[in-house]
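Example record for the data management plan.
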Amino acid sequence: MQLPVRKSFLTIGLMVCLCSAAVLLSESCRKNNPNQLTFLQPEVPAGFPSPLYAFQDNALTEEGFQLGRHLFYDGRLSVDNLHPCSSCHQQIAGFGTYEHDRSHGVHDSHTLRNAPALFNLRWAPLYHWDGEFKTLKEEAQQPVIGPIEMGETWDGVISKIGKDPYYQQQFLKVFRTRFIRPEHILQALAQFTGSLISVNSKYDRVKKGTEQFSVAEQHGYDLYKTNCATCHPEPLFTDYSLRNNGIPVDPNLNDFGKMRLTGKSQDSLLFRVPSLRNVYISSNYMHDGRYNTLAQCINHYRTGIQQSATLDPLLKNGIALTNAEATDLGLFLRALTDSSFLVDPRYTKPL
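Corresponding structural encoding:
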């Protein structure tokens, strides 16, 4: 008769231990997460390589993401309060500039280049057209303090948003400090822009087996693989390299790409290869937005290549396409449009 009693005591003891462990674990979680932040798992779409940036130094949370989202759409980050990040990076254009050649900044300024589309940024080893910046935080700082972009100072930004109760509460919650600092603004922006994932185009659905290309789109896909995939490989549709694609220099801009940074002749006309995802809706095209349509852009590679010492060897003879082939290639590129990304309410301007 003693055995069942001993079993009962053992069972009760085990339950007490488990409950105590649960309480200790809960207390530990509260200590490690005193502001009850909601941690997020950074998205890595099926078939994508491991991202270069996984928020190692900037823990991704729902609260940090939402804080970055508010900042992205807040005109107070600009000196005239009218030019938020979103004024040049519009969701309808895949977070590029919709049907505009070059970005407009404060004081009626016109920048040197077309605004790059912002998505799948965590896979990029460098940012901006000339590869000047290597991190999401670095690339976000330049437009804020750039005199022909947003034209503000960090003191000016903090003076304005620091009076807003929402920012007071959220910066305290996310970064555990009552003092808003530039690095925290940049970290929050990086949480938002680093979470802009575009991976639901017709192309992606075809790859999943839930949809099929038309005959023309399939032909265009074959042409892409033959003529474009070296510089624009799947699934990101860019290799993020800097290349001279044979585009003539605009004499009014005199933009020589990476050479503007290094002063080296071997860097003349080197610009970052953009992703072809959402290219159909992200006009204008090229680093200076000189082409209004995708057809014009394709025709550049057919007949507009300018020979020079730094021209990418792959483009020495241009890309030979018939008119029908150029049309089919364009139809495939249109199939890279992620329509859901363009209207995703999670990325829209906060109410």
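Summary line stored alongside the record: The domain at 62-197 is CATH 1.10.760.10 (Cytochrome Bc1 Complex; Chain D, domain 2).
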